[in-house]
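Figure 2 data, in text form.
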Amino acid sequence: MDSSPTKYVYCNDLPSVAYATRILALSPVLIIDCEGRNIGGLDGALSLMCIGTEKAEYIFVFDVLALKPFKFRLMPLFCVLANSAVKKVMWDCRNDFLEILSEYNVMLTSILDLQLAEIQARTAVNKEKDFQRIQRFSWGSRAVPLRTIKQNQELFLGVHRLQGMDACIRKANLPTTGKDPQVVAMHKAVGSAIWLDRPLPPNLLAYAAHDIEMIAMLYEHFKTNSWITSANELLLVAQSMRYAYSLFYQGRVADNDVFGPCAVLPLDVLSESRGPHFQCHGCHRMQSLSCYSVRKQGKKPQARSNICRTCQIKALLKETKYPIIWVAV
C-alpha cells in the first residue's frame, strides 16, 4: 500500500494559477474534485478546487477563497474547464458541478463520472444479476427490508444504489491508503465548515489532493478492467452530463429534506428520456412517465404518482412517510 505523501501545488495567487493553467491546458484528461462547506447544500460554499492531470502526475489545489479578488483574471483556467475537447474525470460530479457553476459561472463539459462507470460495469463486466441490484438496497446503514422490496418490485425497477469512492477502492484492492481517517473523524465531529478556515492545516490540503490521486487510480483501474472502453466512453459522458445536471435542475435542498442527498441514482440518467415530461413534487425534476409509479386502464396510463420512484425510495430509506397522490396524465 502506497503511504507516501501526496505531492501537490497550492495555488493561492496569480503566478501559481498561471503555472497550473499552462500544465493543465496540455492534458487531454483532467481529474477534478472539490472541497467546501456542505457542497451542493443550501449553504454550500466552495473552498478548494482540486485539478490533476490524467495520472495525477501534477495536482493543483486552487484556494477559491484566496483567489476571490482575482476571479476575473482566471479566464484561461475557466477556458480549460469549459473546453469540451478536454475530458473531466470525476466521482459523483453533481455537487462539484453545481458549486463550480455557482462560484465561477463555468459549466463543466465532457464529464466522465466514475460512479456511473461502476454501475454500468456491474452488469456489463461483472455480470451482476437483477436480484443482486435489488439486494443492494437491503444493505448498509440506510436499508429497505428485502421483503418490502419484493412487495414493491415495480417501484425498484431499473433503480440503482450508488456506491461510494472509498468502498470502490477497497473492493478494487488498490494500493492506496484511502481517505485520511483523522480528517474524516474531524469532518464528522465539527462539520464541513472547517474547509472555510484559513489558513488550512496541511492535513486538510493533503486530504483534498489525495482525492485526486484516488480518482486517477480508479480511472486507470476502470480502463484496465474494461469498465471504460472506446466503445462505451461516449455513452458514459452523455450519462455523466445528465447526472451533473440532475442536481442543477433539482436545486439546493436542506440536509434534512427527505428528497435530499441519498445513495440512489436518479432516473433518466442512464438512458435519455423520451415522451412527455412531468415535474416530480419531491425533487422537482422534469422526468418521463417511466420514472413514476403509474396506474393503467388496460395498457393506457391513467394516472401517475406525484413523486418519482427515486423519491419514493428515498423516503423508504429514510423511514419517512410521504403521501402519494395520484395525478391524471
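Caption note: The domain at 9-119+164-250 is CATH 3.30.420.10 (Nucleotidyltransferase; domain 5).
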